[in-house]
What we know:
The protein is globular, with a radius of gyration of 14 Å. The protein is built from six helices and five strands; from the N terminus they run H-E-E-H-E-H-E-H-E-H-H. A five-stranded mixed beta sheet has the order 2-1-3-4-5. The protein has one domain: Cytidine Deaminase, domain 2. Helix 3 links the parallel strand 3 and strand 4. The chain has 147 residues and is an alpha/beta fold.
Amino acid sequence: MNDTHEILMRRAIELARAQHGRTGQNPSVGCVIVGAGGKRLSEGATADGGRPHAEQMALDGLKGQPASGAIVYVTLEPCRERSTDEAACSARLIEAGVTKVYVSVMDRHPKGAGGKAALEQAGIVVETGLLEAEAAALYEDFFASLD
């Protein structure tokens, strides 16, 4: 595994940890967006109360800078749909034109699961399991609440 990928996912995990316990019933997620040459373009974490989601925060942080061709590191699978009328994180990433997404932990929530498939259907390469053991503890309570 490339050290750069691990460094960037560790940053996403760090962002998620900083918000852990502050996101209501939503999981705390971290997201890092990287452009050409490995330059960090933006990053974000799930906001207080659980909204906006991390991917939305990171995309909004681009402030109009294009994300076309960017690589995204996210601690939890981007959601397939939202419980609100807002666009799902997978749809936002597709619309932004990212080319690759690294996901640490796959989502088991009925509205979250399936984001990977949506991304792949749009032609985005998705790699899963990057530092999964490190990020998994962030989602134990969230997943337990689904059982």
